[in-house]
Design brief:
The complex is a heterodimer of chains A (113) and B (591). Chain A is mainly β and 113 residues long. Chain A contains no helices and ten strands. Chain A has strands at 5-8, 13-16, 20-23, 27-31, 40-54, 57-66, 72-74, 78-82, 92-93, 99-100. In chain A, strand 5 (40-54) and strand 6 form a beta hairpin. Chain A starts with a strand and ends in a 13-residue tail after the last strand. The radius of gyration of chain B is 23 Å and the shape is globular. Classes of the chains: A mainly beta (113), B alpha+beta (591).
Chain lengths: 113, 591
């Protein structure tokens, strides 16, 4: 089974295999990011703009703001969880409060069933 | 490539959703296959149902669309009965109890904690008195808004109520317009004060005169592409079209068909017509409408009445319709302030009784989350004003109570960043008790929206509050961005965002300091909006400091991470949801 991802409800959710898994309003700590000048970006996720699969990772680009310096914008691709076994489709969320390393790679295709 | 939502809509959408909804309701929550929940939740919106947020699975918000906010005689009692019987959740709200109605900024009604299994009975009850939830949410013609006293207003040039009613009748359940690229919000204004808020709607009918065959006629100018969401606020723009009332529905059909055909179905963030107006410009919008979507010659725009718009214009305003006002027939309407638009169900019953006893039984909802009792006999005004219900829902409220608007917030909403309604109640009470009202201010708008969707319309308030987060002593806390000086009127203006990420418990202190500065530095008779408008960005930032006061905020923690922010054991794992039709947990909560 192909892992199926999309954003829902005006970007409030990342849905994985038709299950709402990651919600907005969490703080994400971003390291080695050029989102802003902060050493660690203390990023408030206000909406999911794009979602993608890079097996086994589920990735998203988020609109929001660094609450330390106030820079607003959209992040590079950020891992929000994993689906290790596409057959079972089980989603393992990542703790937003751990440190994350955004990836600049762009994926335009969204796998569909 | 069309979005996932568009694919779902292609499969099943519009009226046909109802049969599926009824079947699921009959068989219970668990009958919705897990891998189809996203698709069905998206479709259920078309029938006014929004699945509540994480921790509240199996419960829905239900929106009832009342065109122009008109609740006809006999309907309010049924709304109260439905709320009383079906909108009681597993936990109580400390300010409002365990059953209540929300009056919204689009003159609709929202109920929470609705169980799927109850929907057939609720629909039967609502429809027995002509109410419904059809198209209250979803990608179609939404509830028509307008001047809430249309037909009963001495400032009126055209009775907008029949026009709003015709639009409602024409486009509700109409398969031709049931699947649009995105929501379609329409405002009809008939008065010369701008109460319909057409400037922030996708399609606005605004009163205008036009010489036709040598005779001056009343009709509407057409504006398109207003809206506040996603940090991309736009005022609607004139497309140089005038329409007589009898052709209002034809132009509405043409505009929404244009949107249906040309709106962006590949990117929902770019789908609202405001972005198409950005891309095309108003001239192209007009020419495409003329050439492809109407079969009569569109007259150019007539003489508008915007010069006299006082609604939310910052000065002496007709304002929010709160208070006692004479109708053209000699009766009176009485606007009552409902703090943050939420009313406990016992009070809703009482309001229905009072409307019957003193008026015609009709009640209307405003775009300021307030209620209006119409058709009150002039001889009975004083007696009505003495009714105990009006101690809490005042006809002459304190300015800080009067101007307070709040969206749903993290109590139920997936998008919101912060708690809103209970917080705004506490703000209003604290401000009333602690802050001097600047001289001459009778109505001071403070709108609190939990996120950038802007359901509380923060950008058109004197003080705009928008959900954020910050850290305080290293810990994440709920915070608000603060904007100043927004409003409508002849020359509408969006608030300027001045203070960012202010911890929520320091906002009342900021407002206290700001209003003290305003009182000290204002020119004689200068309004707050004028005071803000004449200052540059840097000056605005120096106007006041945020600070802690004796205001206490119980919602500083991450309310979104709770299953319900007000219960003692608010841990997500302690949620009773999802539940069955009896409200019993389907899976035992973790101890």
């Amino acid at each position: 089974m192909t892992t199926d991802v999309h954003q829902l409800d005006d970007g409030a959710w990342v849905s994985v295999n038709d299950s709402r898994e990651v919600n907005v309003s969490n703080l994400w700590l971003l390291a080695r990011s050029d989102f802003c000048g902060c050493e660690l970006t203390d990023f408030l996720a206000e909406g999911f703009v794009d979602v993608s699969v890079d097996h086994p990772n589920i990735e998203a680009r988020m609109a929001g703001r660094c609450i330390a310096c106030g820079t607003e914008g959209v992040t590079d691709w950020l891992q929000v969880g994993r689906v290790i076994d596409p057959e079972s489709g089980e989603f393992y969320a990542i703790d937003p409060e751990s440190v994350h390393f955004p990836d600049k790679r762009r994926r335009l295709a969204r796998p569909q069933k | 490539m069309p979005t996932k939502v568009e694919n779902w809509k292609d499969e099943v959408y519009g009226n046909e959703i109802r049969d599926h909804l009824m079947e699921f309701a009959e068989q219970g929550w668990e009958s919705i296959p897990e891998d189809e929940q996203d698709a069905w939740f998206e479709r259920f919106k078309w029938w006014g149902l929004y699945h509540q947020r994480s921790g509240q699975e199996s419960y829905f918000m239900m929106r009832i669309g009342t065109p122009n906010g008109v609740i006809e005689p006999g309907q309010l009692e049924v709304i109260a009965e439905v709320a009383d019987e079906y909108a009681r959740g597993p936990a109580e709200n400390p300010e409002f109890g365990d059953a209540y109605c929300d009056w919204t900024t689009r003159q609709s009604i929202q109920l929470h904690w609705i169980k799927l299994e109850d929907i057939p009975e609720i629909f039967d009850e609502l429809e027995s008195v002509g109410l419904g939830t059809q198209q209250a949410c979803g990608d179609s013609w939404r509830n028509i808004v307008g001047c809430p006293v249309a037909g009963k207003d001495k400032h009126e040039h055209i009775d907008a109520w029949p026009v709003a009613e015709e639009l409602h009748e024409t486009f509700k359940g109409n398969d031709e317009y049931s699947n649009l690229p995105r929501k379609w919000k329409v405002a009809v204004t008939g008065c010369d004060q701008g109460c319909g808020q057409g400037d922030i709607n996708d399609l606005a009918y605004e009163p205008a005169t036009k010489e036709v065959d040598g005779e001056e006629k009343l009709g509407f100018n057409i504006r398109v592409g207003g809206g506040l969401s996603r940090k991309e606020p736009r005022f609607s723009r004139s497309i140089d079209v005038w329409v007589p009332p009898e052709q209002a529905a034809d132009v509405g059909a043409g505009m929404s068909a244009l949107f249906r055909e040309y709106g962006d179905r590949d990117d929902r963030f770019n789908a609202r017509i405001k972005f198409l107006v950005d891309e095309w410009g108003t001239e192209k919008m007009r020419s495409v409408l003329q050439e492809e979507f109407v079969d009569f010659e569109l007259p150019t725009a007539g003489e508008n009445m915007r010069e006299s718009y006082t609604y939310n214009a910052g000065g002496d305003e007709h304002g929010d319709h709160v208070g006692v006002h004479e109708q053209p027939d000699g009766n009176y309407y009485v606007g009552l302030n409902v703090l943050v638009g939420r009313m406990g169900v016992d009070d809703v019953y009482e309001l229905a009784d009072l409307a019957d006893e003193y008026g015609s039984g009709e009640v209307r909802l405003t775009q300021r989350q307030n209620v209006i009792v119409t058709d009150v006999d002039s001889d009975r005004i004083d007696e009505f004003l003495d009714e105990p219900l009006l101690e809490n829902y005042e006809a002459d409220p304190h300015p800080f109570m009067r101007g307070s608007i709040a969206c749903t917030g993290t109590e139920f909403c997936s998008l919101s960043i912060v708690e809103t309604k209970n917080r705004q109640v506490r703000y209003a009470r604290w401000l009333k008790d602690n802050v001097a009202v600047p001289d001459g201010v009778e109505d001071f708008h403070i709108h609190l929206s939990g996120c950038t969707a802007s359901c509380a319309q923060p950008q058109i308030a004197d003080i705009s509050l928008r959900g954020m987060k910050t850290r305080k002593d290293g810990e994440p806390v709920e915070a608000l961005d603060i904007g100043l000086g927004g409003g409508l009127g002849e020359n509408p203006h969006f608030a300027d965002w001045v203070e960012m990420r202010v911890p929520a418990d320091e906002v009342p202190g900021y407002i206290e300091n700001l209003l003290a500065t305003f009182e000290d530095e204002r020119a004689d008779g200068q309004t707050f909006r004028e005071f803000i408008a004449e200052r540059e960005e840097e000056e605005l930032q120096d106007l006041a400091e945020a600070e802690e006061t004796d205001y206490e905020d119980p919602y500083m923690h991450n309310t979104k991470m709770t299953w319900y922010p007000y219960v003692e054991d608010d841990d997500m794992q302690s949620s009773p949801a999802p539940t069955n039709g009896e409200g019993e947990p389907l899976q035992p909560a973790d101890d």
